[in-house]
PPM-type phosphatase domain-containing protein
Amino acid sequence: MALGERRLTACHHNLIVDVIDKELSNPESRIHFKRHPAEDKTPGKVLALWGDEPEESDFFAPYFSSKPMNFDGEFSRMRHCLGVVSHRGHKPDQPNQDEFFVLVRKESVLMGILDGHGPYGHCVAHFAQEHLPGTILEGLRADPESWETSVKNGVTMLCRECQLDADMAEKATMSGTTMTVLMLDSPAHSTWRVRSAHLGDSIAVLAHRPRANGAWEITQLTNIHRPDRQDEAQRIEDAGGQVLDCGEGEASRLLAGEWSLAVSRSWGDFHASRMGLSHDPEFCEENLPLDSDCFILVCSDGVWDVMPQLQAVNLIGKYPPEEAQSAVEKLVNKAQLRWQEKGETVDDITALVLWPIFNDGTASYSDAIMASQAVGGWKK
C-alpha cells in the first residue's frame, strides 16, 4: 500500500507553507504580507508567521473560521515541518481571542501561543504577541543562554509598553492572556534543545518515540497555572487572594473583585495582581532525543480541556511529518466536535506542531521516513 493511500483523511495541503503558497494567489486571501516587529531586533533573515491584528469584522466572522495570518520571509527558511491552525469557537459577540507566532531563523525557532480572556482579551493577546518576541530575541542575541532572564525582561518591558499606551492599559486592566513561548535551538552542533516559558494553561508537550518502537511518550514542557493546582492555591492565599471552590467536577477560580479567573497566572488582568494573580512565568528545558522520532505540540486550552495529552499526541503521530498541517487540522476538528458534544459553547482552538530538522539537514524522523517508504506507509 502506498503512503498516500494510508492517510486518515484526504490531504489538500501538507504543511503550513503549502497553505500560504495557495492563499497568496487568492485575491480574497486571509494571509497578508507583513513584517513582524521582532524582525527589527534580530540580525539576519527571518521567516515570520503570526496572527493578524483584530478588527471589528472579526466579531462577525463565521464560527470555526480560520484566523487571518501575516507572513514574511522565504519558504526556504522553513526547513522544519510545521502545521498551524487557529479557529474561532462558538461564542456569540466574541471574536477569536487566540494568538500565535512563529519566527524562524537559520539555527532557531521562537514560537508561541496566547489565549486571551475578558472583554478585550483579543486585543491584549495581540499586543503581547507583537511586543514580547522582539525583547526576548534581543536578550538572546546578547547572551544565547539568558533564556529565563530574557523572558522575564520581556514580560517587564511588555508591562511598561502597555502602561505607555493609555488605551491598551485600560483594556489590560480587566482582560488578559495566557502565554506559552518556546525556543528551539542548537547550543552545540551535536544537540538540539527546546526551552519553554509560560503563564496560564496553554500546554506544550514534547512527544518522542524510539524508532524501533511505535509507542509515543510525552514530556510536558509546561505545568498548568490554575487555582486548583495546590501550590498555586497556596501562593494565592499567601498573597492575600482567595480561591473560589466551584463544587465537585468544576475547576476552582481566582476571585478578583467582582470577577473570577480560571487561571492563576497570566499577562494583563492588572486588577487582579493584588489578589494573587502572578505575572511570573515558569520555565523548562529539555534536550531533543536525536535517536528518536519527535515533535513539539503546543495548543490553547481549547484542545486540552477536551482531549488528554496522549490522545492528542497519538492523533498527530498517525500522520507523517510532511503532513503536519493535515494533522493539526484533524486535531482541531476533533476538539471542536467534543466541545459541541459537551454543550452550546465551543472554545477558540489553536494548535501548532513542529517536527524539527537538525543542523546537518537530517530530520528527527528521517530514518523512520525511509523505513516507512520501504514498507509502504508511515508507521502509526
The first strand starts at residue 31 and ends at 33. The radius of gyration is 20 Å. Confidence is low (pLDDT under 50) at residues 1-12, 366-376.
